[in-house]
Specification:
Blueprint (H helix, E strand, L loop, with lengths): L13 H33 L2 H8 L2 H27 L3 H36 L4 H14 L3 H16 L4 H24 L3 H25 L16 H32 L4 H10 L1 H26 L3 H28 L1 H5 L6 H15 L5 H13 L4 H26 L2 H5 L1 H25 L3
Helix pairs in contact: 1-2, 1-7, 1-8, 1-11, 2-5, 2-10, 3-4, 3-6, 3-9, 3-11, 4-5, 4-6, 4-9, 5-8, 6-8, 7-8, 9-16, 10-14, 11-12, 11-15, 12-14, 12-15, 15-18, 16-18
Length: 448
């Protein structure tokens, strides 16, 4: 299945190659989600509903910071994949070493800015006074792991561009096991509650980052990492940033739009807020499993475009779109059928679980609609186009959500009217992103 350079992206049957490429990424993404989910599960079961609400109140902000870093990593993936496909090995090396520095600097900036503005951001969200101190403690400690998260996403982007999605999975498996063990130790044995689970997550991220750096430094291929070659090459900076920044901003702006949704949730009672926090764990789980297919879409399209294998470019998109839709439908059905069992992982309070079920049922009917939007964005990114798709998603899925909060939700002021904005925004944005991708595809194919 794999050789020393990883899975081939430009040869062999596409469907099976995409599945083999995606499966380790799915498991890797799930493990990243489990960092935050295990935090919420441990504090919810062993530190009480107040600690659960405090950690849950930070979910949107955690998603904002981590989403930006994941988007930056996808820019590294696309750029490295294209140069590998074209066998331009010097460009591969310069891109790798430029990207390592770029993402490390970004991680440090997010740590500094996030730490400084944590109280203001949580207050802006309307975090309940009784939850505010715990939420500040959790988020500030969690942010200490941002530089490590940046390095891991850099390394994961490089390795997946080369067709190696197994090693990031192995590294996250080890880090995830340590995270759960430290969660239990810090909360149960040391009574650290919110700060304990945040510290466990941050330390685990440094473990996974260290392992992925070791892997890259012990390779002989053109994408190997060498300390002596670390340098910001201006042309590679521009290329990586032209894809990474719009991708990262897209993820971050989603989170900013969701701040308004969280503010809407916070207008209800504490039980609804805590139920929403518990059920919202399903969002990250479903999105990140689907995101593995989107990474495959960008990687396969970029690599085959670089190799001038035009017949494999559009087929990669169609296969990835079908896979992501099917995965979303299957996971949604499972959440709707077994929602109570899922929520029992995060709370023992029956009223909180009942409030969480409302969100699970609505979102379970909505997730699949996001596949068209996100897969089309990933496809455009794989062709080297990121700016316009980002503008479309900002207008159609972010601005639209804010408008919905201040119109439809303000009129009805029910939790159902708030949750329904997801399916409407995904459907509208997905149609626009498909049109945009088809335009780029026609243009790019004329270049081959």
């Amino acid at each position: 299945m794999f050789n020393s350079r990883g899975l081939s992206l430009t040869e062999g049957p596409l469907f099976s190659s995409i599945v083999r490429f995606s499966l380790p990424l799915m498991l890797s993404n799930v493990l990243q989600v489990l960092f935050n989910m295990s935090d919420i599960a441990v504090v919810g079961r062993f530190a009480g509903a107040e600690a659960l609400g405090a950690v849950g109140s930070t979910t949107i902000l955690v998603t904002l910071f981590t989403g930006f870093m994941i988007g930056m990593g996808s820019g590294v993936n696309v750029t490295v994949a294209r140069y590998l496909g074209a066998q331009r090995h010097r460009d591969v090396s310069e891109t790798v070493h430029t990207s390592a520095l770029l993402l490390l600097i970004t991680g440090l900036l997010l740590l500094g800015l996030g730490f400084a503005f944590t109280p203001a951001l949580l207050t802006l969200l309307g975090t309940k006074d009784v939850l505010l101190d715990g939420a500040i403690r959790y988020l500030r400690v969690y942010l200490l792991g941002m530089p490590a998260l940046a390095i891991f996403n850099f390394g994961s982007g490089v390795l997946s561009a080369a067709g190696d999605t197994r090693r990031p999975l192995m590294f996250l498996s080890l880090a995830g096991a340590l995270n759960v063990a430290m969660n239990l130790l810090f909360v149960i044995a040391f009574g650290m509650a919110e700060a304990g689970v945040a510290l466990a997550s941050a330390l685990s991220q440094y473990v996974s980052a260290g392992l992925i750096i070791l892997s890259l430094t012990h390779r002989d291929e053109s994408y190997a990492l060498r300390r002596a070659l670390l340098k910001l090459h201006p042309d590679k900076c521009r290329q990586v940033l032209s894809i990474s920044v719009p991708s990262g901003l897209q993820n971050a702006i989603f989170a900013i739009a969701n701040l308004f949704i969280q503010a809407g949730v916070n207008t209800f009672d504490a039980v609804t807020v805590e139920g929403n926090a518990a059920a919202a764990n399903a969002d990250a789980l479903v999105y990140d499993v689907m995101a593995a297919v989107y990474t495959a879409c960008s990687s396969f399209m970029s690599r085959n475009f670089g190799a001038r294998r035009r017949e494999r470019v559009i087929r990669s998109y169609v296969i990835c779109l079908g896979l992501s839709f099917g995965i979303a439908a299957a996971m949604s059905a499972a959440l709707v059928l077994f929602g109570r069992g899922f929520l029992s992982l995060f709370t023992k309070d029956a009223a909180v679980a009942e409030a969480g079920l409302i969100r699970l049922r609505v979102m379970g009917c909505s997730y699949a609609f996001s596949a068209l939007m996100d897969c089309s964005i990933a496809a455009s990114r794989g062709l080297g186009k990121s700016f316009v798709p980002t503008v479309i998603v900002i207008l159609g899925s972010c601005v639209f959500r804010v408008i919905w909060v201040f119109t439809v939700f303000a009129h009805f002021h029910t939790i159902l009217s708030l949750y329904l904005l997801y399916i409407f925004s995904w459907a509208i944005t997905g149609a626009a992103e498909l049109i945009c991708f088809l335009k780029y595809y026609r243009e790019r194919m004329h270049e081959l």
